[in-house]
Amino acid sequence: MFLEVKKHLAKLALRGGEPVRKKPFQKWPIFDENETEALKEVLESGLWGIGGSKKAEFEEKFAAYQHAKYGVAVTSGTAALEISLRALGIGCGDEVIIPSYTFMATSIAILYVNAIPVFADIDPETYTIDPKSVESAISDRTKAILPVHIGGRPADMDALLSIARKNNLYIIEDACQAWGAEWRGKRVGAIGDIGAFSFQSSKNITSGEGGIVVTNSEDLYVKAWALHNCGRLPQKAWYEHYLPGANYRMTEFQAAILLAQMKRFDEHTIRRNENARYLDNKLSKINGVKPLKNDERVTRHAYHLYIFRIEPEAFGGLSKTIIARALQAEGIPVSVGYSKPLYKEPYLEYFKKCPLSCPYYAKQVDYSSIRTPVAERACYYEGLWLPQYVLLGTRDDMEDVVAALEKVRDNVDELKGLT
To answer: How far is Cα 157 from Cα 73, in angstroms, rounded to an integer?
Structure first.
């Protein structure tokens, strides 16, 4: 009887109360007859891969959209990062500086080319790579900086370009979450030397899988094209292989879908930005909830993720995992995002012999001794994410997000004892 009464009196849905929201948010992916007709056109053409026109058309249109001269459409964002590294000649014994708060593809691409990821911390206000931490990580082995435009928010490209010029380093942009994002009016991806995008199923424009390399350098474009197409060079013979390339080519079906997705992309980006600004205003008024800082040099945010911070003290010292569970029970699809910094991931064990202990590198790598305090705090205590499709909703949808956060914060005592 006591338990039944307690359940009846509970306010939080996780404890048996009524949730703030019972209806789903916008379904993803979004498609219509444009995608259907595009797929049909490719199917009926009989040119599903090599020989078709959709891939080339998409490469040209997407590169131009990102203010780049060249694009090479590939199988994934991870492949785009790997090809970018190889095109720059980065390999055995080279170090590449990356943020600790990012998806594993950022580091795995570096390890796949036998180079060494060096982990920098992030800015506490933006969660993008901290330029001061980058400077402190530079060594005589450093060849490149690989900033991540996390969640669609451009990193501080002014500071990073300055550091790169001063130290004769390349910049490879991980723009896999940042289609259309702008830094001082210039779209990311080709602000540095070369950049990578992803079109995986959760992404703001998607073909299920896929990626693209963009650059303003003709030399890097030719190398990237060869690396993604079995080492061939443009305008050369089919069975002449100049670089150690493989088959990373995007299919015509994927390119056709992406061309259709681009038609509604600007409309969706505008809506995401409007809703994100509304959430920034509302959430900043909730004690213990802090949106990330908006930098006026970011003239367009892609908002693949809406990332915000919670202060554990304001939520009874509870973990962000429990807070996320409570919000999910209220009907809000919040996730904890990255639960550990990259240098804590188990997969690094597979690279202990090579490249991490490679004689050519002649240095000892001990990721167990690394500490990036801001990234660790983001992973363990603070950072929560809303997926991009939530931001395609109505103003009432945004109010549900606000109401759920207020409800969980105000009734946090009901969550004590959960693990």
So the answer is: 24
Q: What is the domain partition of the chain in residue ranges? A: 33-264
Specify the CATH number for 33-264; select among 1.10.472.20, 3.40.50.2300, 1.10.357.10, 3.40.640.10: 3.40.640.10
Taking every pair of Cα atoms in the chain, the longest distance, rounded to a whole number of angstroms, is: 81
210 and 73 Cβ atoms separated by less than 8 Å: yes
Amino acid letter for position 205? I
* Complete edge-to-edge strand list for the sheet that includes strand 298-300: 186-187, 182-183, 298-300
Q: Give the angle subtended at the CA of 211 by the CAs of 210 and 214, to the nearest 5°.
A: 160
**What residues of the chain score a pLDDT lower than 50?**
1-8
pTM of the model: 0.96
Strand ranges across the sheet with 289-291: 289-291, 305-310, 383-387
| DSSP H or E run through 72 | strand 70-74
Q: CA separation (Å) from 159 to 127, 129, 133, 134?
A: 15, 11, 12, 10
**Residues labelled as active-site residues:** 203
pLDDT in tens, 10-61: 799 999 999 999 999 999 999 999 999 999 999 999 999 998 999 999 999 9
